[in-house]
Amino acid sequence: MPGRRAFLAGTAGLACALVLRPAAATPESMLAAIRALTGGVAPRTGRVRIEVPPLSENGNVVPLTVAVDSPMTPAEHVRAIHVFSEKNPDPRVLSVHLGPRSGRALLSTRIRLADTQTVIAVAELSDGSFWEQSASVVVTLAACLEELPS
Predict the structure, then answer these.
(1) What is the pLDDT of residues 21-75, one digit of tens each?
(2) What homologous superfamily does CATH list for 23-139?
(3) Any residues with CB less than 8 A from the CB of 26 and at least 6 apart, and which?
(4) 55 has which bridge partners?
């Protein structure tokens, strides 16, 4: 019968493994998150341009730019830009809400990517339509799943 120390060490090891290795999204869960956002409507391809390097040496700081073709007038504008990934712990990476006074439908930031994967940007327009574009990124040093230094 194992002693108290062995039990505590085993329990601590299991807890660390669960904390340091969060559940990853899957391509299916990413598509389910997009369907939930769009109410089941398949986004059309076009109007959205996503720029992300095809090869990223560090998944902790992957540059991302998303632009949407829109006049950004009160009658026709981008309501939101959503970014999804297929292998991060959560498929929804970010959501940015815009309005006609935003000037341009453009966002530029850095994101974390857990592994080599596809990133999808979905634009929600004022007419209720959804548009998307995807890009693949090869990540050599994964983020989100790394162990913390001791």
Answers:
(1) 445 788 899 999 999 999 999 999 999 999 999 999 999 999 999 999 999 999 9
(2) SoxY domain (2.60.40.2470)
(3) 86, 87
(4) 138
Give me the residue spans of the domains in the chain. 23-139
Spatial neighbors of 58 by CB under 8 A, at least 6 apart, are: 139, 140, 141, 143
The model carries a pTM of: 0.79
Whose tokens are 């899957």? That residue is: 26
The gap from C-alpha 75 to its chain's centroid, in whole angstroms, comes to 29
The b-or-e profile of 72-96 (16+ CB within 10 A means b, else e) is beeeebbbbbbbbbbbbebbbbeee
Task: Tell me the per-residue pLDDT of 85-141, one tens digit each, with 9 for 90 and over.
Answer: 999 999 999 999 999 999 999 999 999 999 999 999 999 999 999 999 999 999 998
49 in Cβ contact with 67 (< 8 Å):
yes
